[in-house]
Structure formats: C-alpha cells, structure tokens
Amino acid sequence: MERPKRFVYVIKNAHQPPQYYTGLTSNPAERLDAHNAGRCCHTESRRPWRMDVLIEFSDAERAVAFEQYLKSGSGSAFAVRHLRATSATPP
Questions:
Q1: How confident is residue 88, by pLDDT bands cut at 50, 70 and 90?
Q2: pLDDT tens figures, 19-77
Q3: CA distances (Å), origin 20, targets 3, 9, 12, 58, 71
Q4: Is the Cα dihedral 25, 12, 41, 73 positive or negative?
Q5: How far is CA 23 from CA 6, 39, 42, 88, 90, in A?
Q6: Rounded distance, CA 18 to CA 11, Å?
Q7: C-alpha–C-alpha distance, residues 47 and 91, integer Å
Q8: Overall CATH class of domain 6-82
Q9: How far apart are alpha carbons 55 and 57 in whole angstroms?
Q10: SS3 letters across the chain
C-alpha cells in the first residue's frame, strides 16, 4: 500500500513587507483554499495568500521534522536565506 505524500509549504501574502506562513499538508490546493477562506486562525487576518514554496516528501516523519525545523530559530534563518524570494528575484 502506498503511503500518502506529505508536503511542507510556505505561503506568502502581498503585504509590504510580505508575511510568510509555514505548514504541513497532504493536499496543498485544499490547504491554500482553507487559508484564503479564513479557516486558519493564524492566517485569517493577513489574506490573501499564495503558494510560495512547496516541498514534497514521501515520508511523513521527515516532512514533520522539516516543518518543525523551518519553524525553529535556525530553520527560520535558513528559510530567509534560501526559500524566500528577494526583491531582485521575480515572483
């Protein structure tokens, strides 16, 4: 039986400066819809959102560990350096 894939995602809003939110899901499109519909208390006041980074994992444990890392201090610094577009990079 095939295990469901898990995705770590980073969404971005259009505010200046932009704000980011990192999460974990098995259905990225449905989860983005939920954020934009206001069904997540952490993101409802900063809508609308768009998908900025999407990383697929075949192993749920690795996906959870990576999401937790991105939400840590050093993981947040990693995301700023490597995952977030700069003003010189096209969206």
A1: very low
A2: 999 999 999 999 999 999 999 999 999 999 999 999 999 999 999 999 999 999 999 99
A3: 29, 10, 5, 24, 11
A4: positive
A5: 11, 14, 11, 26, 23
A6: 10
A7: 18
A8: alpha beta
A9: 7
A10: CCCCCEEEEEEEECCCCCCEEEEEECCHHHHHHHHHCCCCCCCHHHCCEEEEEEEEECCHHHHHHHHHHHCCHHHHHHHHHHCCCCCCCCC
Q: What is the pLDDT of residue 86?
A: 62
Cβ atoms of residues 64 and 22 within 8 Å = no
